[in-house]
Write a structure and sequence with these properties.
The chain is an alpha+beta fold. The protein folds into two domains: 116 residues, 2-Layer Sandwich (Phosphorylase Kinase, domain 1); 125 residues. The strands form three sheets. Strands 1, 2, 5, 6, 7, 8 and 9 form a seven-stranded antiparallel sheet that branches. It has a three-stranded antiparallel sheet with strand order 10-11-12. Strands 3-4 form a two-stranded antiparallel sheet. Helix 9 runs antiparallel to helix 10.
């Protein structure tokens, strides 16, 4: 789908300035942010996505920032804009975390960073909760299994390097299903200091504790909760490839 873009110069005025300085910013802050974007070579913004600010469509909104689709040169990329009421003083720490996960081929690729902005690869796709809704009618067991397995493999890689995503119990927002790949997103609450529980959290979300688990169960019948919990316990004690493979077997993946 071709996107239509609006020049960032327009973002100095309402209603567009609301996105650049969400939830509240002074004219001076907006001006300074436009300069910052010019230094990052961001030329224009496309108002598209499943979330809204006022009547304007955006890709996403969280505690730290809002995410929009932008153009950098001729390339479409995702831009995370730091909220003016965010606890974070800048985007540096999140860019460091993103670099770490990129090193094991997880997450959207980091492109650039400045005080108020994070520029990263745009992953076109659906949030997992929307995707599984669309899948329900088709009953494609194979598709669901390969998607879940791919997300679990990413989580296994994160566990192996001692990196905890931190929000995978809420997968509906943090897993994007694209045409060619499945990606974990949004590493703003991640940590390398906590004990990682990526595989555990995402398995529970997929199969045990959520509305998504009920939907997955309708598409393909899974092992009992007891069996899954038992396999997870073994994996938790020793995060070996063998225990991970055993978990995949129990999950019929």
């Amino acid at each position: 789908m071709a996107h239509s873009f609006i020049s960032i110069k327009k973002f100095s005025e309402e209603p567009y300035s609301k996105i650049l300085g969400y939830p509240n910013a002074t004219n001076r802050q907006i001006k300074s942010r436009i300069n910052e974007l010019e230094k990052l070579k961001i030329k224009s913004v496309c108002l598209t996505g499943p979330t809204t600010i006022g009547n304007l469509a955006i890709l996403g909104k969280g505690y730290v920032g809002v995410v929009v689709l932008v153009k950098r040169g001729n390339k479409e990329v995702a831009l995370k804009i730091r909220r003016t009421d965010s606890q974070r003083k800048n985007m540096k720490n999140e860019s460091i975390l993103l670099k770490i996960v990129n090193s094991i081929k997880v997450g959207p690729k980091l492109i650039d960073v400045s005080k108020n902005f994070l520029v990263m690869e745009y992953l076109e796709g659906e949030k997992f909760s929307n995707w599984i809704e669309m899948l329900k009618g088709t009953g494609s067991t194979k598709k669901l299994k390969s998607t879940i397995k791919s997300a679990l493999e990413d989580c296994y890689r994160l566990d192996q390097i001692g990196f905890d995503h931190g929000e995978l119990s809420n997968i509906s927002k943090h897993v994007i299903v694209g045409k060619t790949k499945v990606s974990l997103i949004d590493f703003e609450s991640s940590s390398t200091k906590r004990r990682p529980s990526n595989v555990t959290s995402i398995t529970q979300a997929f199969f045990i504790g959520s509305g998504i688990a009920k939907q997955a169960q309708k598409i393909y019948k899974n092992s009992s909760k007891e069996k899954i919990i038992h396999a997870l316990k073994s994996y938790k004690q020793e995060k070996t490839r063998e225990n991970f493979e055993n978990l995949l077997k129990v999950l019929k993946l």
